Amino acid sequence: MANDRRGPRLPERQTTVRSELKAILHEGPFTTRDLSVRVGVGEKDVAMHLEHIARSVQASGERFEVEPPRCLACGFVFKDRTRMTKPSRCPRCKGERLAPARYRIATTRKTPRPDADATRV
Ligand SMILES: [Zn+2]
User: Fold this and answer.
1) CATH assignment of the domain containing 62
2) Is 118 among the domain residues?
3) Euclidean distance between CA atoms 38 and 55, whole angstroms
4) Residue 97 falls within a domain, yes or no?
5) Is the dihedral of CA 26, 28, 32, 36 positive or negative?
6) Distance, CA of 45 to CA of 40 (rounded, Å)
7) What pLDDT is recorded for position 59?
8) Residues of the chain with pLDDT > 90: what percent?
9) Which region among 34-43, 50-59, 75-84 has the lowest average model confidence (pLDDT)?
10) pLDDT over 60 at 5, yes or no
11) pLDDT tens digits along 56-74
12) Ligand 1 center to residue 61 CA distance, Å?
Protein backbone atom coordinates (compact mmCIF):
# COMPACT_ATOMS: atom_id res chain seq x y z
CA MET A 1 0.00 0.00 0.00
CA ALA A 2 1.20 3.48 -0.78
CA ASN A 3 1.17 5.09 2.60
CA ASP A 4 3.68 7.90 2.46
CA ARG A 5 3.10 10.07 5.49
CA ARG A 6 6.64 11.32 5.85
CA GLY A 7 6.52 14.15 3.36
CA PRO A 8 5.45 17.68 4.18
CA ARG A 9 1.75 18.33 4.19
CA LEU A 10 1.27 20.52 1.20
CA PRO A 11 -2.07 22.19 0.49
CA GLU A 12 -1.95 20.60 -2.96
CA ARG A 13 -1.83 17.16 -1.41
CA GLN A 14 -4.82 18.03 0.76
CA THR A 15 -6.79 19.01 -2.31
CA THR A 16 -5.75 15.87 -4.12
CA VAL A 17 -6.74 13.65 -1.23
CA ARG A 18 -10.11 15.31 -1.05
CA SER A 19 -10.83 14.92 -4.75
CA GLU A 20 -9.64 11.32 -4.60
CA LEU A 21 -11.98 10.70 -1.70
CA LYS A 22 -14.87 12.26 -3.56
CA ALA A 23 -14.22 10.06 -6.57
CA ILE A 24 -14.00 6.95 -4.40
CA LEU A 25 -17.13 7.85 -2.44
CA HIS A 26 -19.16 7.70 -5.63
CA GLU A 27 -18.41 3.97 -5.65
CA GLY A 28 -19.26 3.64 -1.95
CA PRO A 29 -20.30 3.04 0.70
CA PHE A 30 -16.98 2.81 2.51
CA THR A 31 -15.83 3.07 6.10
CA THR A 32 -13.18 5.60 7.12
CA ARG A 33 -10.80 2.66 7.36
CA ASP A 34 -11.51 1.60 3.78
CA LEU A 35 -10.97 5.17 2.64
CA SER A 36 -7.83 5.54 4.72
CA VAL A 37 -6.30 2.54 2.97
CA ARG A 38 -7.42 3.68 -0.48
CA VAL A 39 -5.99 7.20 -0.33
CA GLY A 40 -3.09 6.55 2.04
CA VAL A 41 -3.88 8.99 4.85
CA GLY A 42 -4.82 8.32 8.47
CA GLU A 43 -8.40 7.72 9.50
CA LYS A 44 -8.53 10.99 11.41
CA ASP A 45 -7.51 12.86 8.28
CA VAL A 46 -10.14 10.99 6.34
CA ALA A 47 -12.75 12.03 8.92
CA MET A 48 -11.67 15.65 8.57
CA HIS A 49 -11.91 15.51 4.78
CA LEU A 50 -15.31 13.84 5.00
CA GLU A 51 -16.68 16.75 7.00
CA HIS A 52 -15.59 19.15 4.28
CA ILE A 53 -16.87 16.90 1.52
CA ALA A 54 -20.23 16.50 3.27
CA ARG A 55 -20.69 20.25 3.09
CA SER A 56 -19.28 20.77 -0.38
CA VAL A 57 -21.17 18.06 -2.30
CA GLN A 58 -24.52 19.68 -1.62
CA ALA A 59 -23.47 22.63 -3.73
CA SER A 60 -22.93 20.35 -6.71
CA GLY A 61 -26.37 18.75 -6.49
CA GLU A 62 -25.15 15.55 -4.86
CA ARG A 63 -25.92 14.06 -1.50
CA PHE A 64 -23.48 12.84 1.09
CA GLU A 65 -24.99 9.74 2.66
CA VAL A 66 -24.03 8.29 6.01
CA GLU A 67 -24.88 4.78 7.05
CA PRO A 68 -24.65 5.18 10.84
CA PRO A 69 -22.49 2.96 13.05
CA ARG A 70 -24.27 0.03 14.62
CA CYS A 71 -23.70 -2.13 17.66
CA LEU A 72 -23.10 -5.73 16.64
CA ALA A 73 -24.25 -7.03 20.01
CA CYS A 74 -27.64 -5.40 20.45
CA GLY A 75 -28.26 -3.69 17.12
CA PHE A 76 -28.25 -0.15 18.53
CA VAL A 77 -27.86 2.39 15.73
CA PHE A 78 -25.91 5.58 16.36
CA LYS A 79 -28.35 7.73 14.45
CA ASP A 80 -27.67 11.00 16.18
CA ARG A 81 -23.96 11.11 15.49
CA THR A 82 -22.95 14.02 13.36
CA ARG A 83 -19.19 13.75 13.76
CA MET A 84 -17.30 11.53 11.34
CA THR A 85 -15.28 9.89 14.07
CA LYS A 86 -15.99 6.45 15.41
CA PRO A 87 -17.86 5.81 18.66
CA SER A 88 -15.94 3.59 21.04
CA ARG A 89 -18.75 1.71 22.72
CA CYS A 90 -22.47 1.18 22.69
CA PRO A 91 -24.42 3.43 25.09
CA ARG A 92 -27.10 0.77 25.50
CA CYS A 93 -25.23 -2.48 26.18
CA LYS A 94 -21.69 -1.09 26.57
CA GLY A 95 -20.55 -3.48 23.87
CA GLU A 96 -17.43 -2.52 21.97
CA ARG A 97 -18.01 -4.54 18.83
CA LEU A 98 -19.37 -1.89 16.54
CA ALA A 99 -19.90 -1.85 12.82
CA PRO A 100 -18.36 1.44 11.69
CA ALA A 101 -20.27 4.09 9.78
CA ARG A 102 -20.09 3.94 6.02
CA TYR A 103 -20.14 6.85 3.65
CA ARG A 104 -20.99 7.47 0.05
CA ILE A 105 -21.88 10.24 -2.35
CA ALA A 106 -25.15 9.84 -4.21
CA THR A 107 -26.00 11.86 -7.24
CA THR A 108 -29.45 13.21 -6.59
CA ARG A 109 -29.93 15.25 -9.73
CA LYS A 110 -29.33 13.41 -12.96
CA THR A 111 -30.60 16.09 -15.32
CA PRO A 112 -29.85 19.76 -14.67
CA ARG A 113 -32.85 21.77 -13.65
CA PRO A 114 -33.55 24.60 -16.11
CA ASP A 115 -34.50 27.04 -13.36
CA ALA A 116 -31.22 26.47 -11.55
CA ASP A 117 -28.96 26.94 -14.56
CA ALA A 118 -30.75 29.65 -16.47
CA THR A 119 -29.29 32.44 -14.37
CA ARG A 120 -25.69 31.28 -14.80
CA VAL A 121 -25.22 31.98 -18.49
ZN1 LIG B 1 -25.16 -2.49 22.05
Assistant:
1) 1.10.10
2) no
3) 22
4) yes
5) negative
6) 10
7) 82
8) 59
9) 75-84
10) no
11) 988 888 999 999 999 999 9
12) 36
Cα-to-centroid distance, 110 and ligand 1 (Å): 39
Secondary structure (3-state) at 89: coil
**Residue 100 sits in which domain range?**
14-109
- Does any domain span residue 72? yes
Burial of 111 (0-12, 13-18, 19+ CB in 10 A): exposed
Q: In angstroms, what is the span from residue 104 Cα to ligand 1's centroid?
A: 25
Helical ranges in the chain per DSSP H: 11-25, 32-39, 43-56, 114-117
pLDDT of residue 11: 59
Task: Note whether residue 5 is domain-resident.
Answer: no
Query: What distance in angstroms lies between residue 90's CA and the mean position of ligand 1's atoms?
Result: 5
Q: How many domains does the chain have?
A: 1
In this prediction, residue 61 carries a pLDDT of 85
